[in-house]
Amino acid sequence: MKIMIVEDDLVSRTVLETTLKREGHEVVSMPDGRQAWEYFDRDPVRAIISDWMMPDMDGLELCSKIRSRPQTPYTYFILLTAINPSRENLHKAMVEGIDDFLQKPLNKETIWARLHVAQRILHYTTEIRQLQQMLPICMYCKKIREDEDYWKQIEQYIGERTGSGFSHGICPDCYKTVVEPQLAALAQLTDQPPSAPRQGD
Q: Which of 65, 137, 182, 185 is 20 to 30 A removed from 72 (C-alpha atoms)?
């Protein structure tokens, strides 16, 4: 996974970069939030580990700009803190879109666990994004075509990918255009007097 490190302290940045590379990740290192944003705006990454307090642009400002960038695949954002954040700061960070926190000094096992969660969440967000994009769907029966040219009911297709179940209802438009005419036709049938018997019966 390609990960961006944003840390103004050279020693901390180097240690974290070395740790991530040993785990097999591709790493981009930036010394401050502004340079990180300039890079991200040209070439978005899927995961960022950023220090909170930095000159020029801190971690929260960086996260806020990334979240507001249009047409951007979801980026998992981990914020580095030197101390446990207060409840007020924690709330502020979550509002800005922070996904997780890492407290200094960093621990290799903790970093691995956080990134494992990040990869799983990014996998799910990618699947959701694919579902939101245009899908080949039959104009008559509404089945969806998979890559193997196999057609599935839309409920089955989405259920297999998200684990979601479906309950069925009737929207107001369909009730007006489909159900009401059917009810009116049924009422006409029930209100008609019985037909006279035919001769010879």
A: 137
| Residue type at position 150 | Y
**Nearest-CA neighbor of 16 among 78, 94, 100, 99?**
78
Q: Which two tokens stand for residue 140?
A: 């008559």
Dmax over CA atoms of the chain, in Å, equals 106
Say if CB 75 and CB 48 are below 8 A apart: yes
Give CA–CA dist 161/112, Å, rounded.
Answer: 26
Nearest of 191, 42, 97, 84 to residue 28 by alpha carbon: 42
Token duo for residue 200 = 């010879």
CA–CA dist 189, 14 (Å, integer): 82
Residue 170 CA to its chain's centroid (Å): 28
Distance CA 39, CA 27 (A): 13
pLDDT given for residue 138 in this prediction: 75
Whether the ω angle into residue 31 lies within 30 degrees of 0, i.e. cis, is no
Work out whether strand 100-103 and strand 144-145 pair parallel, antiparallel, or are unpaired: unpaired
Sorted by where each starts, the structural domains of the chain and their CATH numbers stand as: 2-132 (3.40.50.2300), 144-185 (no CATH)
Least confident piece of the model among 1-15, 35-49, 67-81, 182-196: 182-196
Q: How many CA atoms lie within 13 Å of 131's alpha carbon, on the beta-carbon side?
A: 16
**In the chain, which ranges are continuous DSSP H helix?**
10-22, 33-42, 59-68, 87-96, 108-132, 154-162, 172-174, 180-191
